[in-house]
Amino acid sequence: MNAADIQIRPLTCRIGAEISGVDLFRSIDADVFRILHDALMEHLVIFFRDQDITHEDHLRFGRLFGDLAIHSGVAGLPDYPEIVAIHADGRSKFVAGENWHSDLSCNECPPMGSILYLPVVPEIGGDTLFSNMYSAYEALSPRMKDLLTGLTATHDGEHVYRPIVNDPTRRFPCNSHPVIRTHPVTGKKCLYVNSSYTTRIDQLPKGESDALLQFLYVHCMNPNFQVRFRWQPRSVAFWDNRCTQHQAVWDYFPQTRSGFRVTIAGDRPF
Ligand code: SIN
């Protein structure tokens, strides 16, 4: 594999690119790593097709980008605690990520990125939507940007994981983060609230907080900020959680969609 063979095809004007010419989980040299890293920074989510990977390959590829995080809500695989199964079939009562979210924004240091590999997907359906939170921030009026600057919001894992984790002794993370965060690599500002984890803007009374969050959630769902990824068996999606949100579409019940995700540790948002 050679850096010169890599092709990057943007999928929309604002977010998402499909990358070919890479056998992701074999030998990634420094040049290839730099190309993939820069593509992630530029396109926020990158997609790969026809990848054959083992759990070890998945972990190794993830570690190129940083330490791997253990999921703070659900258990990983017995022999691979950093890998969580993403699985739905005809017996499922819910699927992971059905509402817009940035992964584990309830953590004190939410993950920088996530890498999802799906060997099994339904013939039709099961897409994932991704939305660009730089664009969401930039599209706000100057007055709204001023209002949001300096505010923090609470992100709580309790109501997300309590219904699905059968252990009354478990405690789930709850942390406050800036409503507008700065991306540590690009230095750009992005909107950082999401309808799955965010419960409250800390400095506002509940009524004002609810109304403002509702406005921001709808704003973030603007199709102008989005890409919709159509999976094929053995596709990989790698997204930057700091500047995106995503939503898994469960329109394929009772068919099976199944695979594995690793998350890369991140920094405390600022
Ligand atoms: C997730 O939120 O990580 C799941 C995304 C998906 O299944 O498409």
Portion in helices: 10-25%
Strand content: 25-35%
By CATH, the superfamily comes out as Clavaminate synthase-like
| Contiguous helical run count | 6
User: Can you tell me the CATH class?
Assistant: Alpha Beta
In terms of quaternary structure, the protein is single chain
CATH topology: Double-stranded beta-helix
Biggest sheet descriptor: 8 strands, mixed
Structural class: alpha+beta
Bound molecules: succinic acid
What is the C-alpha radius of gyration, as a whole number of Å? 18 Å
User: Could you give the distance between the termini?
Assistant: 38 Å
| CATH architecture descriptor text | 4-Layer Sandwich
How confident overall, as mean pLDDT?
95
| Helix-strand sequence | EEHEHEEEEHHEHEEEEHEEEE
Provide an overview of this structure.
- This protein is α+β, with helices and mostly antiparallel strands and 270 residues long.
- The chain has helices at residues 30-43, 55-63, 133-138, 142-148, 158-161, 206-220; strands at 7-10, 17-20, 45-48, 68-69, 83-88, 113-120, 128-132, 152-156, 174-178, 180-182, 189-191, 198-201, 226-229, 235-240, 244-248, 257-264.
- The chain has a single domain (3-264), classed as Clavaminate synthase-like (Double-stranded beta-helix), CATH 3.60.130.
- The chain has 6 helices and 16 strands.
- The mean pLDDT is 95.
- Succinic acid (SIN) binds at residues 86, 96-97, 103, 114, 116, 128, 246, 248, 261.
- Succinic acid is lined by residues 86, 96-97, 103, 114, 116, 128, 246, 248, 261.
